[in-house]
Recover the amino acids of this structure.
């Protein structure tokens, strides 16, 4: 899977 | 938010503050790579542009602002206030060898071909290798002050804890970010050699010095 961006991480 | 993520963030914060305090208290940035610190400032700047576009949480915003401010404060102390103590002769890593491949990779492999996404991806890739000028400097001088090794330990621990955080999120939240995970793995691997020296030497009360 290409995955998705974890926007909540630092 | 899970325990790995929180301790990872706190470990990152500890690293940043240890470095700032070391420079401030000793009035010296000897042994610190200004180039690595500029790269980290660039990492935070390009990654946290979303401060202007989206609000995630108070925690998220506050931490981002603290990281950015500390990064620029560190760069200012090295190249401004305590410039006379900066060991530029030993800080000779060629950063263009990192920046050029990282820019190319960010343009080629990203989640979406959009300016903000490419900058975010650039920051992830750059962070994974931004410590190299610092590690290069230590290998060149053959030693590091103990406080500098504590800084490096917490900085390495942070991304290692994030790896556990990503495993957690994969299993419990169905989240998976291939770009962050691969870059995080690379970043952690770069610290492995240092972790070994830290545990076998520094934690036993010896100074970190490399064989000539």
């Amino acid at each position: 899977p290409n995955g998705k961006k974890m926007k909540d991480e630092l | 938010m899970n325990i790995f993520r929180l301790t990872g963030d706190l470990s990152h914060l500890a690293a940043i503050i240890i470095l700032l305090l070391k420079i401030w208290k000793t009035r010296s940035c000897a042994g610190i790579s200004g180039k690595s610190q500029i790269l980290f400032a660039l990492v935070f700047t390009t990654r946290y542009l979303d401060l202007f576009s989206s609000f995630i949480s108070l925690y998220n915003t506050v931490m981002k602002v603290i990281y950015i401010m500390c990064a620029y404060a560190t760069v200012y102390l090295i190249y401004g206030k305590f410039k006379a103590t900066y060991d530029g002769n030993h800080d000779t890593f060629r950063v263009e060898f990192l920046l050029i491949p990282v820019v190319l990779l960010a343009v080629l492999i990203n989640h979406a071909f959009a300016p903000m996404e490419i900058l975010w991806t650039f920051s992830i890739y750059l962070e994974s290798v931004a410590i190299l000028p610092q590690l290069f400097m230590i290998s060149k001088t053959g030693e590091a002050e103990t406080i500098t090794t504590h800084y490096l330990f917490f900085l390495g621990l942070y991304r290692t804890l994030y790896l556990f955080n990503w495993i957690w999120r994969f299993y419990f939240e169905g989240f998976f970010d291939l770009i962050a995970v691969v870059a995080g793995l690379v970043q952690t691997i770069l610290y492995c050699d240092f972790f070994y020296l830290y545990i076998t030497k520094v934690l036993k009360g010896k100074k970190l010095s490399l064989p000539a």
User: Anything to note?
Assistant: Chain A is about 0% helix and 0% strand. Chain A touches chain B at residues 1-10 (CB under 8 Å). The two ends of chain A are 22 Å apart (CA to CA).
